[in-house]
Amino acid sequence: MPKQKNKVAKEKETPKQIAAKIYDMAKGIVADIKKETDPEFVTQQRGKSNVEFDEKKGILKLGDKETTRTFLNVGHAKKFMQTMLVSAKAHEYLKHNKTASIREIYYELKHTVPNTKENTFEGQTESDSCIVDLEHSINSIREKLNLHANPKGTLYGDITLKDKMHHNDTFNCGKLGRGGWSIMSRLEPEEIDIMKINAKYVLVIETEAMYERLVEERFPKDNNCILVSTGGQAARGTRRLIHRLHTEKKLPVYVFTDGDPYGWYIYSVIKQGSMALAAHSGFMACPNAKYIGMTLDDIEIYDLQNVTEKMKDGDLKRAKEMMAYPWFQNEAWQHQLKKALKEKVRIEQQALANKSLEFVATEYLPTKIKKKDFLP
Amino acid sequence: MPKQKNKVAKEKETPKQIAAKIYDMAKGIVADIKKETDPEFVTQQRGKSNVEFDEKKGILKLGDKETTRTFLNVGHAKKFMQTMLVSAKAHEYLKHNKTASIREIYYELKHTVPNTKENTFEGQTESDSCIVDLEHSINSIREKLNLHANPKGTLYGDITLKDKMHHNDTFNCGKLGRGGWSIMSRLEPEEIDIMKINAKYVLVIETEAMYERLVEERFPKDNNCILVSTGGQAARGTRRLIHRLHTEKKLPVYVFTDGDPYGWYIYSVIKQGSMALAAHSGFMACPNAKYIGMTLDDIEIYDLQNVTEKMKDGDLKRAKEMMAYPWFQNEAWQHQLKKALKEKVRIEQQALANKSLEFVATEYLPTKIKKKDFLP
Q1: Is B154 on the interface with A (CB under 8 A)?
Q2: Is the CB of residue B213 less than 8 Å away from at least one CB of chain A?
Q3: Block mean pLDDT (10 aa), chain B, length 376
Q4: Treating both helix axes as pointing N-terminal to C-terminal, what angle do B261-272 and B313-324 enclose, rounded to 10 degrees?
Q5: Are A171 and B175 a contacting pair at CB < 8 A?
Q6: What is the rounded radius of gyration, in angstroms, for the C-alpha atoms of chain A?
Q7: Which of B126, B148, B176 to probe by mutation at the A interface, max A CB count within 10 Å?
Q8: What is the CA angle B364-B240-B261, rounded to 5?
Q9: Which of B183, B346, B189, B181 is CA-nearest to residue B259?
Q10: Which of B17, B158, B225, B299 is least surrounded by CB atoms within 10 angstroms?
Q11: Is A350–B107 a contact, with Cβ atoms under 8 angstroms apart?
């Protein structure tokens, strides 16, 4: 049964519609078997060679290359069986309104095939890759298959959410003390409503400690903004949340990370999407996001030479790779990346404490925002 | 000036009292200088050789060994200067009601000493060790010096908190949807009040995915308990919270981790404290905590042989070390540790999904709790 092509990935597909897509796929396969035709499973080809940068939309996407798996090919048969197991289980979750982590579905499906010594799965990588196949085949994301990875990230500010799957709890994330709301692993619109929001922009922050600093300085209140801390690379639930604030609520998104290739890559994943999830940029990316800092120029501007760190080999390697990516082909980023490779120093967000604890909240961020001193 | 001995570490010391302790210490040093005596800084000796297990209290503690640093000793002079810088800065935070991460205080204090090429600190390890010295010298914890590490962990359930430093926000952690409250890095009683709590016990969970499972299954509501997810080894703020629930609110604490030495060690740190922070067990430990699972016996009892994993070398090494610790000298834990070394398999919490997603909530945990089937 062929992949469902030419359908735009739909943000608002309901669990019922997704379940129907899986059911249709399976029905096609059963029909093939009844016709004594070799059943096929078609999915999009992933990997660098099929990733394209959509200049107009400003996001990464997948090209047209496909992968077909046939059941009667000995090399494909096990993977075919695994994909059917994952598809049936995801269908069951959707039917029964259950969700599961990708580790749970692995454990739930792992067993020894009766009368053999063959296990359905040997490791989680095997079920993970079936999940990715299924996502691409039905042109949606795992969250809409009721699957999720681990949660990570915190939300703070004058934003009221409603969890329709949990007693319709309605709460304002600016009124939870300094701790904030622990962002869920899945944040689909049919479950979590963004009821009300009073903010001029969203500030996305790499480190939790900087999040705590800005809360202590009352930055969100004084500047009328929402804070999202990612705790490193943003988890999928956190990316979905930022995406929704950006697209549903039309809020500008400013990203604030350490001044190093790792931090800049966190930004680019939030903005354009990632290569590994290129097909899902429509669910995840924020093409109009801006980068607020840290830049390597900040070191001189704010006289921070004394609190830089040496860049590690991994950072230098990443900087070289990033220089070649189409979505970094602009003067500002090429300048940063060249500077990184030349000077081999990095600067952390928290190094701004060298001026004073308040400096980031009273000077650094407000000045950049006022002057629109962003990187694209 | 000698360390302030014979004083019990006090949970309820106020910022003012802590600031006074630092001030007194500094006054003593100034007096020494005026008398032309070599000033001394006395702190407790840390490390395994000075850690003792207090059988009666069931917690780790430090012995009586002390370390004295003198300013006129060339080998001590720089460290002495660093300790004074950290002490003065912490005093300033307390005076001005500011808090800072241990990375921020490092950056704030790092500079080149005028007319020299000498930096105050070369790396964060240097300032961190001064913080530890100061904690031990004044017989308190960094949180009471207004310092903190990164936050991590989530709280869920019918518990109402008030943040007195944030508009007296008062909120119930069972009414924040499925996301829960993001636990702060510092949770001192003079800032965060536990206003109301309706629960029979606290269930501490190693993985965030298991936390999400139990919330989805409505386990906390059906079983009238509080959930705390640690996301691996518990952060200090999360340990303080669990400790407060255990001591202030007299709630039983049950700990639920993966069935491996790493998970068991997470448990023992929550229960008895850690060797690195042996002096602080009075602020952190929960000596009556119980271990609910996973045990290696669960593998046979619940027929999970198919979903075990091979133990890594690091786990085996840790198991050997743990066998020798005084606080693991009981039949139940010796049995687990021996079994680990013999069978070399581990079992994850999420492997229970192999029975069904609900199994952990409807069978595994309720049965263990009903039968009081705990490890000590």
Answers
A1: yes
A2: yes
A3: 49 92 96 95 90 94 92 92 97 96 96 92 96 94 94 97 96 97 95 97 97 97 98 96 97 98 97 93 96 98 96 96 96 98 97 97 98 97
A4: 40
A5: yes
A6: 23
A7: B176
A8: 45
A9: B346
A10: B17
A11: yes
For an interface test with B, the pick among A191, A195, A212, A294 (most B C-beta atoms closer than 10 Å) comes out as A212
The verdict on A192 touching B (C-beta cutoff 8 Å) is yes
CA A56 to chain CA mean position, Å: 21
**Interface contact flag, A350 B154, Cβ < 8 Å:** no
The candidate with the shortest Cα–Cα distance to A139, out of A24, A243, A52, is: A24
How far is the CA of B284 from the CAs of B50, B77, B143, B170, in angstroms?
Answer: 19, 33, 11, 24
First-to-last C-alpha distance (Å) of chain B:
42
Q: Give yes or no for a contact between B21 and B12, defined as CB atoms under 8 angstroms apart.
A: no
Q: What is the pLDDT at residue B48?
A: 87
**What residues in chain A have per-residue pLDDT under 70?**
1-9
Distance CA A305, CA A291 (A): 21
Name which of A107, A75, A82, A51 is nearest A281 in CA terms: A51
Residues 85 through 124 of chain B touching chain A, CB cutoff 8 Å: 98-101, 103-105, 107-108, 110-112, 119
What is the per-residue DSSP string for A147-165? EE-----EEESSEEEEETT
Which residues of A belong to the active site? 107
The per-residue DSSP string of B127-189 comes to: HHHHHHHHHHHTTS-GGGGTEE-----EEESSEEEEETTTTTEEEETTSBTBT-EE--S---T
Long-range contacts of B321-328 (CB under 8 A, 24+ apart): B322/B261, B322/B264, B322/B265, B322/B268, B325/B53, B325/B268, B326/B53, B326/B55, B327/B53, B327/B58, B327/B60, B327/B268, B327/B271, B327/B272, B328/B268
C-alpha separations of B346 from B42, B256, B261, B315, B340 in Å: 44, 14, 9, 9, 7
* Residue A99 with chain B: CB contacts under 8 Å: 212, 216
What pLDDT is stored for residue B9 in this prediction? Answer: 52
User: What amino acid occupies position A207?
Assistant: T
Query: How does DSSP classify residue A178?
Result: B
Domains, chain B, in order of start with CATH, read 15-148 (1.10.10.10), 154-370 (3.40.1360.10)
DSSP 8-state assignment for residue B94: H
For residue A154, the cross-strand partners are: A182, A229
Q: How far is CA A82 from CA A28, A40, A222, in A?
A: 17, 14, 53
